[in-house]
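Why run this: before we spend reagent on co-expression, it is cheaper to look at a predicted model of the complex and decide which construct boundaries make sense. The entries below are exactly what would go into the expression plan.
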Amino acid sequence: MILRRCISSLSGSKTGAFQLPPTIRQLLASPTTPDAPAITVSGWIKSIRRQKNVAFAVLTDGSSSQGLQAVFVGNGEGVKALTNGSAVRLTGRLVPSPGAGQDKEFLVDLGKGKAQANAGEVHVLGSCDPELYPIQKQALSTEYLRDHSHLRARTDAIAAMIRLRDSLQKNISTFFDDQGFVYTHTPILTGNDAEGAGESFRIAEMSSTHPSVGHPPHAATPAPAHEKEFFSRPAHLTVSHQLHLEALATSLSRVYTLSPCFRAERSLTGRHLAEFWMLEAEWALTTGGVNATCDFVEACLRSVVRGAPATDVDALWKGKDADGEERRRALDDAVSLQREPWVRMTYTEAVRALEDHVHQNPAAFEYAPAWGRTLQSEHEKWLAEKLVGGPVFITDYPAALKPFYMRHNDDGKTVACFDLIVPHVGELVGGSVREERAEVLEEQMRADFGPDLGSGAYQWYLDLRKYGGAPHMGFGMGFERLVGWVGGIDNVRESIPFPRWAGRMLL
Amino acid sequence: MILRRCISSLSGSKTGAFQLPPTIRQLLASPTTPDAPAITVSGWIKSIRRQKNVAFAVLTDGSSSQGLQAVFVGNGEGVKALTNGSAVRLTGRLVPSPGAGQDKEFLVDLGKGKAQANAGEVHVLGSCDPELYPIQKQALSTEYLRDHSHLRARTDAIAAMIRLRDSLQKNISTFFDDQGFVYTHTPILTGNDAEGAGESFRIAEMSSTHPSVGHPPHAATPAPAHEKEFFSRPAHLTVSHQLHLEALATSLSRVYTLSPCFRAERSLTGRHLAEFWMLEAEWALTTGGVNATCDFVEACLRSVVRGAPATDVDALWKGKDADGEERRRALDDAVSLQREPWVRMTYTEAVRALEDHVHQNPAAFEYAPAWGRTLQSEHEKWLAEKLVGGPVFITDYPAALKPFYMRHNDDGKTVACFDLIVPHVGELVGGSVREERAEVLEEQMRADFGPDLGSGAYQWYLDLRKYGGAPHMGFGMGFERLVGWVGGIDNVRESIPFPRWAGRMLL
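The model came back. Tokens follow.
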């Protein structure tokens, strides 16, 4: 009884058929007829051009790189308020377009009285002062847009980049799903300090005045408030999800994540962010060594990139010079089904090729290549762009150059790993077979962390081998670099909605 | 020429048809015949039972709640090494099972010589000492497993929970995709300090000895090394992605994310984690007020929960008492297509109902309900579990109880918001129409942050309204609470692979 009395609204959705109004992308994909009925569509004005008795505007809702051309006939009062950036709701009809450049247009007939059939309407939801609006129609510099990061998604390129991220992520999900993987959430906060992958951010100690928050409703048992460390031990932001993924792979066998990672590196380059997203995968119980790992990565990338939506990719490459056009062709070529498998060479072979090149061109590189030394960016660039002319897997690096967890090859010198180098991007993926032999791993860890294995901090990692360890492999791919490769974006700061780097964090 | 000479391996995948070997889940879904050919399957031994000339083991690779029954005939030497937890590769045949409890079994015939057709094989990939293995077959306490978080995914319940997370996330992705949303990555590191949503973690200042890392290959411009703040200003871990999502929604109109959030709250409850994942969505240009927001959330939840895989949900609810069975029935009922829309009531109506209840039962609550006061957990519990008996939306709370960004109703007292309360879970979702009127928002922000709007820190948020502001709405849902609701998991620490809370962060 009380229920009936106190409940005002039992409306609610017929959820089976729930659907928000169509987006402009959906409208553009729907059929039109000259006598289409009147509908309502909302969005922001991207541009407007007024003539005596007619006005043309491009309307966008961010759902597509393509805007909706709106044609205002009769030029009523409402059209005056339509300025670049304003949010509007229009009533009109989606009809075939007689003009060039688009199949469809949205006809808003303002010459008719409101009561008449098919009368158009213009309703300004939010105005935008054209004098003050920071996103003017002319080209805006990259730096200017970084300074206005809360508004820069309103530009065509940044919006296309964000949609491209969404598409790539969906394609990744489809590929991994087909291969029997489980998507998992591994922790951001960890006691591990970087695993040698670079500087990590550390969580500050709690201030002594930090209040012990205990909301009455939670019937909370407050933790000791005198602890300076919130977690009773130092906490860092993770630089990689690999070790935690490995723990899950000893149960679920095939796991992956696309998660944020953090590096407190002060180097300012177009390839590094302090906060970035990484695709990481680990899988166990399969065989085939480093070649099988490369097979997986190549199949994944080809499938993911081939499925990227052409409209957004086109929008991102638009206006590039001849060199840009050539890069795009090379990208399409690299992932096409017809093309040969990507080239694979060992580190040893790569160094030999570099040395041969230096022999013929003594001034070729700033750093001399030699076996046992890190491959520099200039070396990788030459290998991918000049020697191979496409993506190249470089495998089996010297053990001394790589982290403790990579599987040692029988030669006693190298490990079963690879870097995938891509023209104009550099290292896109790094991966390896993981050392599954407990005794070999333990020896390597003692060498790296000391005889107490870093005060036992990594004992858990050894446990994974001790109890039913199985052959496994994995890799990590910088998601912003992938976005940059597919979209022809030269700086990772334009491959993520809100970039963070040393000295810079807006919003 | 050089290319030919230096490249050793041009193998690589035929990527169009790339496929890892089938998982046990895939095998169990494939057809069997009595004369099936010999194949190889790998996994971990979950249990083994030995008889004189035959042994039975359950093999898992974590791909399914259901294991593969392996039958060893002939009982060779290899079977002795098969202990709980060991990783093995078996050669045998997938045949129809004559036994009860499974359709198929994996027959490993060890009685035949290796060279014979269909000869079975057992290969131990990694042994596991049954005396030392921490994951013994008997029931292990929740606390014990939390202490062994690197191994606890090997238990049926935690593995099922992780797979359930994967499924729910996929269903979420499908739902939002159908509604025209774009998945976006909003930042974890932010200058915003909590937005009133609770205590935030702060990034420590860089130590003065912090090296300025500048890898030679990056041609890096090092950032000023004297800065104590890496980003030249204090950085916090985000408590919510809402404000950044709103910025993107003014371009892409429909955006969502499933991302980590952080709260440095010391209260220790079964409903709170220091690091958790939140589904957050914002969409613009649509109408309908708070009821439309509830419609969306209800449609989303019904669709996402209905699509959860029965095998994993069954595994999680297994062994519950009668009360648990009743809860599961209530869950299925709540999301079934046949059921009425979920009840909606205003905060004012909810308080009146609570007051009526107190009038009849003076000792009903610890805290007296009254208009203008926060609804306590005990109140929400009664409303959802006793009054309504199902999920209930409570709408239009007093403005003074809610954050500055919620849209003010015309009554001058309340805001257009809702909380979704679910039996045995509590608050699962919170959302609102956002205040799109620049002047109303600015007034509210001055009241909250002072006349300078927090030294201008939130000016960007006002900008979003100033330049083409549009009606918009959004919500946030704690992902671990959703997992708990669907899986009948009482403590959020068992709803995430690696839980973190005050005083506790393993690995």
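Chain B has two domains: 20-126, 152-202+227-436+471-494. The radius of gyration of chain B is 28 Å. Bring this page to Monday's planning discussion.
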